[in-house]
Amino acid sequence: MRPDPRPRSHPTYLAFLVHRISGLLLALFLPLHFWALSRAISGEAALEGFLRWADQPLVKASETLLVVLLAAHLAGGLRVLALEFLGWRSSQKTMVAASAGVALASGLLFLFHAG
Amino acid sequence: MQDRSEPAPTGAVLQVDVWRGDASGGELRRYQVPARENQTVLDVVTHIQREIEPDLAYRFACRVGMCGSCAMVVNGRARWTCRTHVKKVAADGVLELRPLANLPVIRDLATDMAPFFDKWARARGTFQPKDAPDGAVPAEFHVVPPSSPKRQAADAGIECIGCGVCYASCDIVAWNPDYLGPAALNRAWTLVNDVRDGARQPRLDAVKGDAGCHACHSTQSCTERCPKGLDPSGAVAGLKRTLFWNVFGWDR
């Protein structure tokens, strides 16, 4: 059955989705990350080759997306911690907006720094 | 005075899709109901039952938002039908009415609320007064200052009337049918903060774990949809916090 978006159309549900999906995508990325690190063990040339390949614009763009995912996941986690440990209830929508802002700002910072 | 039962000047007609069926399944059926200047969704359901389809099953009692028995899914969202004006929700003059989600359907728009209230019992949602030796009145009963933080935390969730809107809006209940759900946990949190209650620890034990507050993913649909503006999601977070510090033997 197709999920009905109507009961779920509110900011904190979106925050939950972003937190969950970014977590899953980061989990999928981890093996790739470890493989890249393993290049260093195989020797300097292998690592250099990989790093040169990673300089391509498309890979750079993917890295920016990765930074956004990491920041979104971190900010989403901070939102849940604030809700559970500090009891911040009424400001949850502000927290969601701030989380999104932090994630996008981190991505932009990385992109410009990388450039 | 304006006669509020008069049809709207346009003579418009509402298209109302009502879920008809029982536990074995069902389908949406369309009815035409005269659009009026002022009408609630419950008025529309009552019109269908009285004028068109006498065997339509639905539930209501007070009609003024006190009893919590008329909740249904209106155009995709769980709501009190008695306090929902048609013109606020009927985009393009179309209403879609379904029984509350996450509960077994008895027939048409009437759901079986038993699993919902069974979970209140499982969460130990009954006040259990503290005991004192020799039948004396426990000290906590003498004065409970309304401004004390514990009483304010208890008061925050005490107005719940058990309508089931939060329960029907909760995805975690849909994913894990054993999950106690926002209303039962809100009730437990209210009692955890009641200084006169003597079952704090057994109640905390009853609400922890995979079917308890730790299953909540903080989507906060319960808080978003509560017709009374309560915050069951905050109550669940409070239970998680209390249980966390409870591990170290701290009461926070």
Q: What is this entry, summarized?
A:
The complex is a heterodimer of chains A (115) and B (252). With 115 residues, chain A is mostly helical.
Describe the SSE topology.
The complex is a heterodimer of chains A (115) and B (252).
Chain A: H1 11-41, H2 44-53, H3 57-86, H4 92-114
Helix pairs in contact in A: 1-2, 1-3, 3-4
Chain B: E1 13-22, E2 25-34, H1 41-52, E3 71-74, E4 77-80, H2 86-89, E5 94-98, E6 105-107, E7 110-111, H3 114-122, H4 149-157, H5 165-169, H6 171-175, H7 182-192, H8 200-207, H9 221-225, H10 232-247
Parallel strand pairs in B: 1-5
Antiparallel strand pairs in B: 1-2, 3-4, 3-5, 6-7
Helix pairs in contact in B: 3-7, 4-7, 7-8, 7-10
Notes on the structure:
The complex is a heterodimer of chains A (115) and B (252). Chain A is built from 4 helices and no strands. Chain A is mainly α and 115 residues long. Chain B is an alpha+beta fold. Chain B has 2 domains: 2-111, Beta-grasp domain (Ubiquitin-like (UB roll), Roll), CATH 3.10.20; 114-247, Alpha-helical ferredoxin (Fumarate Reductase Iron-sulfur Protein, Chain B, domain 2). Chain B has helices at 41-52, 86-89, 114-122, 149-157, 165-169, 171-175, 182-192, 200-207, 221-225, 232-247, and strands at 13-22, 25-34, 71-74, 77-80, 94-98, 105-107, 110-111. In chain B, helix 3 (114-122) packs parallel to helix 7 (182-192). Chain B is elongated. The mean pLDDT of chain B is 92.
Distance between the termini of chain A: 45 Å
Strand content of chain B: 15-25%
Named CATH architecture of chain A: Up-down Bundle
CA-atom Rg of chain B in angstroms: 21 Å
Which blocks of ≥5 consecutive residues of chain B have pLDDT under 50?
Answer: none
* Annotated CATH homologous superfamily of chain A: Fumarate reductase/succinate dehydrogenase, transmembrane subunit
Strand order, sheet with most strands of chain B: 2-1-5-3-4
Tell me how many strands of chain B there are: 7
- Report mean pLDDT of chain A, rounded to a whole number: 84
* Secondary-structure element pattern of chain A, one letter each: HHHH
How many DSSP H or I helices of chain B? 10
According to CATH, what is the class of the largest domain in chain B?
Mainly Alpha
The computed structural class of chain B is alpha+beta
Weakly predicted, low-confidence segments of chain A: none
Q: Overall pLDDT of chain B, averaged?
A: 92
CATH 2nd-level architecture of the largest domain in chain B? Orthogonal Bundle
CATH homologous superfamily caption of the largest domain in chain B: Alpha-helical ferredoxin
Whole-number total of structural domains of chain A = 1
